[in-house]
Prior knowledge:
Blueprint: H1 2-7, E1 26-30, E2 36-42, H2 55-62, E3 66-69, H3 79-89, H4 103-116, H5 120-123, H6 128-142, H7 151-161, E4 166-168, H8 172-180, H9 184-196, H10 198-213, H11 217-228, H12 234-255, E5 260-265, H13 275-281, E6 285-288
Parallel strand pairs: 2-5, 3-4, 3-5
Antiparallel strand pairs: 1-2, 1-6
Amino acid sequence: MLWAVCLVGAVVVGVHAQGGSSPAMLWTVTDGSGSTAYLLGSIHTLTPDVYPLPAAMDEALAQSKVLVEETLLDDASDPALAMQMLSKAALPQGATLESLISPQQYAQVTALADMSGFPMTMLRQLKPWMVAILLSTATLTQAGYDPAKGIDRYFFDKARAAGMPVRALESVEYQIGRLDGLATDDQVLLLTEMVSEADALVRSVGAMVQAWRVGDADGLASLLRPSMTTVQGLEERLLIERNRAWVPHIERCVRERQGCLVVVGAGHLVGRDSVVALLQARGLTVRQHGVPAPAPAVR
């Protein structure tokens, strides 16, 4: 989700009116026996004004026995993991960021780093993917966005407070590997695209949040799609491969009546090859909250 946020252009999202309950980024997943699990699309960094959430989202947690998220957020405060991430993000001995990008691009990175409060003496030793994360996160933070207000954090904290079991679909180490494994040229392209579009970043995220708030799955997919095609193979590596890996775990939640609420980045639940589409292809019924079921085909 982060790379999509960094690279997508600003788009105005239309609000699609629906009858009955308002659409939300929440889906129910059922099998033939009536067993149910829930899918909830997260935005990982938000402003406080998105709260309170739609009542249906809190109700989904109340109806569940276990929370499933992309990773265990407790790991984010593990010093050993932080050191491992820093080691992965460091350029090889003797290499520097300015040796990978043009002088003009380096000047753009430096200007954004100065605005964000990061010393280039630190950033010049880091791989481009990490520099892009740090600068994009700082830009959003300055605009009032806070990871502590993310949807995944909200439900993680509620589950922990209630003594509910929390499971992870993947490790933080795996997520780091998805980024660190990108070719250097692709990392450079991601960084330079992010820096050149820094002025539009906050507007882009605002458009995504607006789509999320009104449950506009198609609108969110259209915002995310351009960012995933900037680099060949990026969508496959960061979205599709992970979606495919997650689907068996989510299907097992349903088939074995485990009572799961699954909270993952909203980008994984919209568009083609999404978790929703893959679960439907496996014979499960997946319905978005507040969106009428499609009419049966006329024979």
